[in-house]
Amino acid sequence: MNVLILGANGQIARYAIDLFLKDTNANLTLYLRNAERLSEYQSDHVKVMDGDVLDDQKLKQAMTGIDVVYANLSGDMEGQAKSIIKAMKETNVTRLIFITTLGIYDEVPGEFGEWNNQTIGPYLEPYRIAADLIEDSGLNYTIIRPAWLTHNDEIDFEITDKSEPFKGTEVSRKSVASLVVDIAENPELHSRQNIGVNKPNTEGPKPAFY
Ligand SMILES: NC(=O)c1ccc[n+]([C@@H]2O[C@H](COP(=O)([O-])OP(=O)(O)OC[C@H]3O[C@@H](n4cnc5c(N)ncnc54)[C@H](OP(=O)(O)O)[C@@H]3O)[C@@H](O)[C@H]2O)c1
């Protein structure tokens, strides 16, 4: 299994790298800007590659021989989604795991939904556009919409489908990373699904840590 991690120095991605190395035999390509930040990971199983996701040529180069692409990005979500879709199509790579955020479908109910909209509403549209592009791409995607993220050292999560209201308020980055690793190891898991991820029993007007 050859996994390409885009935005590999992202906070969820760092947990995922550690889980991949601890629990799987996957070969990893860590793709990031200023790659020297992860140079200590370079090994027989891990290639560290300097690159911007908006650099079409370099991204295409990184896709060679890859089975699963895991995108853990921020910033220009629309531009990056377009670059990823183009590079995957040109290299015949089909399996994509893509992190977005809760709230892009106004799917968060109640008081927390209102608070979430007030707090991050203006930032949601690019994530929604990226998700729409991916769903329309024909790729074998899993779009993940995490709740508010913590650094808690725990793996404890539940999933909601796109057709359901979002549950809970928060989830650990390690939980999202664990889900990513499970999907990469079992590519049929959550295939062509768009899922919310939260820690059970964290309902409330806002995340407990906020
Ligand atoms: N905070 C929350 O509670 C919350 C909740 C739900 C979802 N989310 C979203 O979930 C996503 C993942 O979360 P996270 O905590 O892992 O995010 P993060 O630590 O901000 O990681 C995002 C990564 O994207 C990389 N990136 C951005 N543009 C790039 C480009 N053009 N080329 C290459 N890399 C690029 C950044 O690289 P550099 O290091 O080079 O800048 C950064 O390492 C984010 O989009 C976040 O906003 C957050």
UniProtKB/TrEMBL annotation:
The record's listing under CDD domains reads: SDR_a6
Q: Which domain of life is it from?
A: Bacteria
**Domain NAD(P)-binding, chain residue ranges per copy:** 7-187
Which Pfam family, any one of them, does this sequence belong to?
NAD_binding_10
Coiled coil regions in record: none
Region (Disordered) location: 191-210
Ranges of Polar residues composition bias in the record: 192-201
The protein's name in its UniProt record: SDR family oxidoreductase
Which species is this record about? Halobacillus salinarum
Q: What is the lineage of its organism?
A: Bacteria, Bacillati, Bacillota, Bacilli, Bacillales
